[in-house]
Amino acid sequence: MSDVKVERKESLSREEAAQWLVLLAKAFTGEDHADLPFGSSSVSLHIPERVRAELEVEVDGDEVEIEVEFKWSMAEHEAAAAAAARPVHARQRSQARKPPRNSKTGK
């Protein structure tokens, strides 16, 4: 069972369907954060640089179904956000410092 699932089904004109795809394309080509309209509200997502994609076309009698699916792990984003939230001085301390070089001896 998934943690969260939002689903919306409705009848659209070809123009309206194209607008959905345009909004989705803009979300993927923009920053790594996207707010997608969803009915009277929106869904906020982090979209990473790489995603898994699936395109499925199914013809059953006189009905055609096209599914476009994108998947990615939220664990990588959460780990990066946690690392970015750590204090800067804690990260600097973990780096070994070299003693200054003596200009006369080269050491």
Can you give a write-up of this model?
By secondary structure, the protein is α+β, with helices and mostly antiparallel strands. It has one domain (14-93). It is 32% helix and 28% strand. The protein has 3 helices and 4 strands. The chain has helices at residues 14-29, 74-85, 88-93; strands at 33-38, 41-46, 52-60, 63-71. The strands form 2 sheets. A two-stranded antiparallel sheet has the order 1-2.
Layout of SSEs?
Blueprint: H1 14-29, E1 33-38, E2 41-46, E3 52-60, E4 63-71, H2 74-85, H3 88-93
Instruction: Give the fraction of residues assigned to helices.
Output: 25-40%
Query: What kind of oligomer do you see?
Result: single chain
Q: Which residues form runs of ≥5 with pLDDT under 50?
A: none
The total count of strands amounts to: 4
Structural class: alpha+beta
Name the descriptors.
alpha+beta
Question: Could you give a quick summary of the protein structure above?
Answer:
This protein has 107 residues and is α+β, with helices and mostly antiparallel strands.
